[in-house]
Specification:
By secondary structure, the protein is α/β, with parallel strands linked by helices. It has 31 helices and 29 strands.
Length: 950
């Protein structure tokens, strides 16, 4: 059968590749020999349906326990622990990004032969979960106090059992290949034991203590918050200037000192006024006393370096019980602490009767009114400043002095700093090392107690009979000092629970069985990689380092890969208040998990934020369709084919048969080898954005748009060694490409890989995910083939551009004349079939000449890769029709240019219109002037051609 006949037979198939639609059947090829569902023996559907593919393959992976790993000391380990999502949570785009990145790495390392484990689990999320259950109770008209602690906790556990698996199921929809046999929960039996063990050891070393300290209090959640659970938001507020009368002011000196404050309601608890010791304005007042308006209490004036002389008046009121900086000044200067705001954010009995019981807002209004009435309020100025809000509920945080449990952080921080500086932990990108170090160097003691019921209860007991206090891993039955019994009601446990992040800090080793010395800890600790967002470096990453070094004697991970936020298309942070959040499950339903995964990592640099743009997901879906249709083409042309060598033997086969391979086959093998080399390098550098871009460019441009088209002459030709060689190359490159893409798009690659034939007698793995990662081989590199094909691609592209510009119908064959150096002429002559097929040329109308030959006069011309290309105009278009079309376009362009010119000549428009509007008009004029010049040149060229043809 001739080539033209074969080309006609496959015309419909070619249209499928170009448009993504139409009919094309694929042959059935042998599936894997593991005996799975048999899908590989069925024809490949004409369109890619992610819903049909994803659920089936994920169930297959689970059924065959392909995510599971056992300890094997003979293999190199790779391990990760998942940043445990809240058990209350629902998958959001941040989770989707974080877990896609982790899954890419664990799938890649698994294919590289490492003993890879990815340990999953969920966090009990103390405040968030308790709030959720309390909201449910409120719908019943009840509170947790109506149920009591024990019954309330039973209700929370029931809620967790009912809803707690939702986030896990959503992670599975994303394709996460976690070892689900090892799933943990921060309050399961093993993790709870680890938490108690750590607490008791730190307590006994004196690193956990209880004390009165200024803490962040959330009146809505009714619990203490650590510093990093407070989000500081810029708000518009006021700065109030208030006079404090001086005690026994001397004749001729001012009768008052004026302070500036943003919180006048707290002045009722003032115990001092502070100035900077270097501020000469107030030097004569240091050591004197002022009278606190409304309360009429005498308070000292003192000097402290904390005070900023440039802020306000340079004198500040000091309320040690309600401001962390005032608290520190109060301790330095022995000031009293008067609590004037309680846990409900109402004023206490420590204030004058007129203010007791008022909310903070009510008290502010009344204090200001009273100050103004008595002449003490001088003025009010607008001020924009940061105010702390509860991260969970958004309520303004109230600093309060309270008895809480703390961890002494300095002794734990010093080894962490030393480990990072010694290179035992690497941050990617490197800039986050500085961020980590700065925070650790200035770390404050960690408030770990929370006034909640849901969580790890603090394992400290008190004996009311003898006053003894102790910590223990197991629940006591009696006081170890006086033998008073728990049952007798004289021994009680501390009512508070631990900060959720306390148990999370132990996650890398508690999930592997600590405090027992388990095989898992010996094999997989320290973990290899932690992937997480920059927003929890302080919450979680630093504390894991502290705890890992303290209890395991080693860092918890070798590398920390930091990613940014997923923002909306406008660059805004996704939030409920803005209503701009995107549900990943909705995206998966519409486009498929593979498309979402590829979108999230493609082109995003390490540590950088990414913008979620729906059009990018559509592009990723189109990418999946492109792969699907290219694979349908390949499978059709691999009917009845059985590879003569397997993947590992392919480089040797290429070296032996290189001279017999088609130029296109040599080129794609070389380009595949380069793409694999670059892809592996990017993965080793943790640069998923560049890795995905490398895959996209190779697959879309080189494999699908060029190689498949260039391979058709041989694949459509008569059976024989040449055709079999091309089929061997097509099989190898497609199979290797699917393996390269698998960590990024696991579902579609599994579906297509399973359908490819296996070498004779070969027994391939049960799944692509456990198939060995391809290896680059220098024997596949072919610089000569790359140079020749690059010349062809540039030449064909230039011809296609001329055809598009001249609006030549796709089916019209045209003549072409090439002028080039002899070596380039030879390449073009040897590839005449490709030029004909891919550039739409008439083979009988091809002419080749040297650079010294005379150039044709009436022809469209281009230069590409040192080749001068001429397409005679007479053969390109109908000259009369083209002239009429160009004259019409020229008239329209001239009219638009004149309209813009007249507008810009109007002085009123130029001087009154916004500058951006004027600039757009100037750009419009320039654009139309360029179009006019181009059309005039085209018309002149047509006139010359028409003249010569007459």
């Amino acid at each position: 059968m001739g080539l033209d006949t074969e080309a006609s037979r496959h015309l419909a198939e070619t249209e499928v590749l170009r448009t993504g639609g139409g009919e094309a059947r694929s042959g059935s090829v042998r599936g894997n020999e593991a005996g799975h569902t048999g899908t590989a023996a069925e024809p490949l559907p004409k369109t890619f349906d992610p819903k049909q593919v994803e659920r089936r393959w994920y169930e297959f992976w689970l059924k065959n326990r392909l995510f599971h790993a056992e300890v094997d000391p003979t293999r190199e380990p790779f391990s990760m622990v998942i940043p445990p999502p809240n058990v209350t949570g629902q998958l959001h785009m941040g989770h989707a990004l974080d877990n896609t990145m982790q899954d890419i790495f664990v799938r890649w390392e698994r294919m590289r032969g490492k003993n890879a484990v990815w340990i999953p689990g969920t966090d009990h999320a103390g405040i968030a979960t308790q709030i959720r259950v309390e909201e449910e109770l409120a719908k019943e008209g009840k509170s947790r106090y109506d149920l009591g602690r024990e019954k309330f906790l039973e209700r929370v556990w029931a809620w967790k059992e009912h809803y707690g698996h939702r986030i896990i199921e959503q992670l599975q929809r994303l394709g996460s290949s976690c070892d689900w046999d090892r799933e943990r929960f921060t309050m399961d039996e093993g993790c709870s034991r680890a938490v108690r063990e750590v607490f008791v050891r730190l307590y006994e070393k004196g690193l956990i203590y209880q004390g009165d300290y200024i803490i962040n209090w959330c009146p809505r959640c009714r619990t203490a918050l650590s510093d990093i659970e407070v989000e500081h938001e810029e708000v518009d507020a006021q700065l109030y200037y208030i006079r404090y009368p001086l005690v026994r002011a001397a004749a001729g000196e001012p009768e008052y000192i004026m302070v500036a404050t943003t919180r006048p309601e707290t002045m009722l608890g003032d115990t001092g006024v502070a100035v900077n010791p270097n501020d000469k304005r107030y030097a004569h007042l240091v050591g004197r006393k002022a009278i606190l308006p409304l309360v009429w209490r005498e308070i000292p004036i003192f000097a402290d370096d904390y005070v900023d002389p440039a802020f306000g008046t340079g004198a500040v009121k000091v309320t040690p019980a309600h401001d962390p900086n005032d608290f520190e000044m109060g301790r330095r200067h022995g000031l009293g602490m008067i609590k004037v705001i309680d846990e409900d954010a109402r004023l206490t009995d420590a204030v004058p009767a007129a203010y007791r019981g008022l909310t903070r807002e009510e008290a502010r209004r009344k204090v200001l009114a009273d100050l103004e009435a008595e002449g003490y309020l001088v003025r009010v100025e607008p001020l924009r400043h940061a105010v702390g809000h509860c991260q969970r509920c958004g309520t303004i945080v109230e600093p309060l002095v309270s008895k809480q449990w703390f961890v002494r952080m300095k002794p734990l921080a010093e080894p962490a700093l030393a480990a990072v500086r010694a290179g035992k932990i690497r941050f990617v990108p490197e800039r986050f090392t500085t961020l980590f170090n700065n925070w650790v160097e200035n770390v404050r003691d960690w408030c770990i107690s929370r006034q909640l019921w849901w969580g790890h209860r603090i394992p400290v007991w008190y004996c009311d009979a003898c006053g003894h206090q102790w910590a223990t891993v197991t629940d006591p039955v009696a006081c170890p000092r006086c033998a008073a019994t728990v049952g007798g009601g004289q021994v009680r446990q501390d009512p508070d629970v631990l900060d959720t992040w306390f148990s999370s800090a132990l996650w890398p080793f508690s999930t592997m069985g600590w405090p027992e010395k388990t095989p898992e800890l010996c094999h997989w600790y320290p973990t290899t990689l932690l992937v997480t967002g920059f927003d929890i470096i302080f919450f979680w990453v630093a504390r894991m380092v502290f705890m890992g070094l303290e209890f395991m004697g080693d860092v918890p991970f070798r590398t920390v890969l930091i990613h940014g936020l997923v923002r909306d298309a406008l660059g805004r942070k996704m939030s409920k208040s803005l209503g701009n959040g995107i549900d990943p499950i909705d995206v998966i339903e519409e486009y498929g998990a593979d498309a979402l995964r590829f979108t999230l990592v493609n082109g995003v640099g390490p540590g950088n934020d990414m913008r979620y743009v729906p059009e990018r997901v559509e592009a990723a879906r189109n990418f999946a369709n492109k792969i699907w249709n290219a694979s349908r083409f390949a499978l059709l042309n691999l009917e009845g084919f059985q590879p003569s060598v397997d993947e590992s033997e392919m480089p040797g086969w290429v070296a032996a048969y290189r001279e017999k391979l088609a130029l296109a086959d040599r080129w794609i093998l070389s380009r595949w080898n380069s793409a694999l080399t670059e892809l592996t390098r990017h993965l080793e550098q943790y640069d998923l954005g560049e890795a995905a871009r490398e895959l996209y460019d190779f697959i879309w441009d080189e494999l699908c748009d060029w190689y498949i088209e260039m391979s058709k002459p041989r694949l459509y030709g008569a059976a024989g060694p040449e055709r079999e060689a091309s089929r061997q190359v097509l099989w190898f490159v497609l199979r290797g490409t699917l393996e390269m893409l698998h960590p990024f798009m696991p579902f579609i690659t599994e579906e297509l890989w399973q359908r490819l034939p296996s070498p004779a007698g070969g027994k391939r793995p049960i799944s692509i995910m456990v198939n060995p990662w391809p290896k680059p081989d220098e024997r596949l590199h072919d610089a000569e083939a790359e140079q020749k094909v690059n010349l062809l691609r540039e030449t064909i592209t230039a011809i296609r551009n001329i055809r598009a510009e001249m609006q030549v119908p796709p089916g019209r064959r045209v003549q072409a004349i090439f002028h080039a150096e002899p070596d380039k002429v030879k390449v073009l002559q040897e590839s005449a079939v490709l030029l004909e097929q891919l550039a739409g040329l008439d083979r009988q109308g091809l002419a080749f000449a040297g650079l010294a030959a005379e150039r044709p006069r009436e022809a469209a011309a281009a230069v590409a890769g040192g080749v001068e290309i001429y397409l005679p105009l007479a053969g390109l278009v109908d000259l009369e029709s083209e002239r009429a079309r160009l004259e019409k376009e020229l008239a329209e362009a001239r009219a638009e240019a004149e309209r813009s010119a007249q507008r810009l000549a109007d002085e009123r428009f130029v001087t009154r219109a916004p500058q951006a509007v004027v600039e757009r008009e100037r750009e419009r004029l320039a654009r139309y002037q360029a179009t006019v010049a181009k059309l005039e040149a085209r018309l002149k060229m047509l006139e010359s051609a028409a003249g010569s043809s007459r």
